[in-house]
């Protein structure tokens, strides 16, 4: 029902388990009716007396190819002209999406764009939500002469105003207004989470915590979108690892729950959540979702706690719901209301440092993020999932897809000393290995092999095809001994 207009990966000190999981994605399919502007008026401010709107009715109605044109005929320093487009009735829905089609006959102009602002009105009264259009907030048409501007509002409105401020624009410069319409956002997949959350972030045009605790988050470059489960969600569409950070959420006991909806935008997308000493990583690559749940205390290092293996459904362009609960030193991982796996936490450190909670998205959508300072029961998780009334199509586990790395009961990996680390590509293995050829492999955080060589030389020069990032280096000797260590690569 929503539609759009990351902390770096941490390393595993001794083991990495990559999980390919079959998830149920979901995109709401409820159609949204477009309500186009049905009337128009023009307002001028002193200093723009000879500015005008040509063909003013061209921006009214559903013909998206007809247009009105605001023309600056004289130097309008300090002056402006506004076309007010009126809708058939006052819109009072909790959330609305407004789309305005704009353009310029002789090509796109950043100078012109920076002089255009849009606001909603109730009658003649502005709602106080005026916004200036910039190049990061628009969608372009293929010919670069037209673009759309989309925004969301929680205010009542019956008009939208498009203002062109003359400023220092060239004489005769113009702005085309093709259309304006709004859509209300369906709420049939909205629900109320289980009672007494520690923090609840619906992400509906803000990152506020709506629980009584008010642990409001800070938005770092996240965009808002109506491509989500309920009303509005957040997304990283600029490939900048957008994030939201929360205060250090208190722990009242040795148990918690984290629940959220997410969907990848395209290949290579990821989400990372840090809470206390836990790191949840989910990454989409090659139509698979790789997931790791990692316990990372400051002293004893990193431990992969949750392994899982499955294949995705044919259509990966859908949302899925993840719930993680922790109680009695056991982490439980649920997918779309069903328990998938349990994992034991190693003994905790006596030394603790408060950790700020955060969520980082990379080409990913996120909706309805909830934290609890208790572990939801199996029944609560199932009821919570079913309350969204989203169809489930979780895939079956496939026998030919396996975790990569060490699982419980497998022989322990040996320690490995690497220098320098981080490195620009040169790695010296300082650990004394058995003489003879050794099989050396380098894998990324998802378990994908990126480099392999058989050599007795302890000095390795990684090829330039291995990009900057976090990796695991494994050495397997002739007699079957396995050594593993994390390595960070920083390319200049």
UniProtKB/TrEMBL annotation:
Where does the Secretion system C-terminal sorting domain start and stop, copy by copy? 418-489
A molecular function GO annotation: hydrolase activity, hydrolyzing O-glycosyl compounds
Which residue ranges run through the membrane? Answer: 7-29
Q: Does the keyword Methyltransferase apply?
A: no
Q: Which InterPro entries match?
A: ConA-like_dom_sf, Secre_tail
Q: What is this protein called?
A: Por secretion system C-terminal sorting domain-containing protein
Stored Pfam families: Laminin_G_3 (PF13385), Por_Secre_tail (PF18962)
Would you indicate the residue range of the signal peptide? none
- Source organism per UniProt: Chitinophaga eiseniae
Provide the alphabetized UniProt keywords: Membrane, Transmembrane, Transmembrane helix
Q: Name one GO biological process term.
A: carbohydrate metabolic process
Keyword Repressor carried by entry: no
């Amino acid at each position: 029902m929503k539609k759009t207009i990351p902390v770096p990966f941490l390393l595993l000190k001794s083991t990495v388990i990559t999980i390919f999981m079959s998830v149920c994605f979901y995109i709401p399919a409820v159609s949204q009716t477009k309500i186009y502007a049905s009337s128009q008026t023009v307002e001028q401010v002193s200093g723009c007396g000879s500015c005008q709107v040509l063909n003013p009715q061209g921006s009214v109605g559903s013909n998206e190819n007809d247009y009105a044109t605001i023309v600056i005929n004289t130097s309008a320093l300090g002056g402006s002209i506004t076309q007010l487009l009126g809708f058939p009735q006052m819109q009072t829905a909790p959330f609305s999406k407004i789309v305005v089609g704009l353009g310029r006959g002789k090509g796109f102009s950043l100078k012109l764009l920076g002089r255009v602002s849009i606001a909603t009105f109730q009658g003649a009264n502005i709602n106080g939500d005026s916004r200036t259009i910039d190049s990061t907030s628009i969608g372009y048409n293929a010919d670069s002469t037209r673009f759309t501007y989309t925004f969301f509002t929680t205010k009542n409105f019956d008009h939208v105003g498009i203002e062109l401020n003359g400023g220092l624009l060239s004489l005769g410069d113009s702005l085309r207004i093709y259309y304006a319409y709004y859509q209300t956002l369906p709420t049939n997949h909205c629900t109320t989470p289980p009672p007494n959350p520690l923090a609840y972030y619906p992400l509906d045009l803000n990152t506020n915590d709506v629980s009584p605790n008010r642990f409001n988050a800070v938005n770092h470059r996240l965009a808002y979108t109506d491509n989500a489960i309920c009303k509005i969600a957040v997304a990283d569409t600029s490939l900048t690892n957008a994030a939201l950070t929360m205060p250090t959420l208190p722990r009242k006991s040795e148990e918690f729950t984290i629940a959220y909806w997410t969907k990848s935008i395209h290949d290579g997308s990821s989400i990372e959540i840090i809470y206390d000493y836990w790191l949840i990583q989910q990454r989409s690559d090659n139509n698979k979702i790789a997931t790791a749940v990692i316990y990372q205390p400051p002293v004893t290092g990193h431990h992969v706690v949750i392994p899982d293996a499955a294949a995705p459904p044919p259509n990966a362009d859908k949302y899925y719901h993840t719930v993680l609960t922790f109680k009695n030193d056991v982490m439980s991982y649920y997918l779309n209301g069903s328990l998938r796996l349990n994992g034991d936490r190693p003994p905790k450190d006596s030394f603790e440092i408060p950790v700020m909670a955060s969520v980082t998205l990379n080409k990913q959508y996120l909706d309805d993020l909830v934290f609890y300072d208790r572990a939801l029961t199996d029944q609560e998780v199932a009821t919570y999932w079913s309350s969204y009334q989203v169809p489930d199509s979780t895939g079956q586990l496939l026998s030919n897809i396996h975790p990569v790395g060490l699982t419980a009961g497998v022989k322990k990996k040996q320690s490995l000393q690497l220098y320098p680390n981080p490195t620009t590509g040169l790695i010296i293995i300082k650990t004394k290995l058995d003489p003879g050829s050794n099989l050396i492999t380098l894998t990324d955080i998802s378990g994908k092999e990126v480099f392999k060589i058989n050599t007795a030389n302890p000095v390795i020069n990684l090829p330039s095809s291995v990009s900057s990032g976090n990796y695991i280096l494994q050495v397997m000797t002739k007699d079957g001994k396995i050594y593993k260590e994390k390595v960070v690569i920083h390319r200049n």
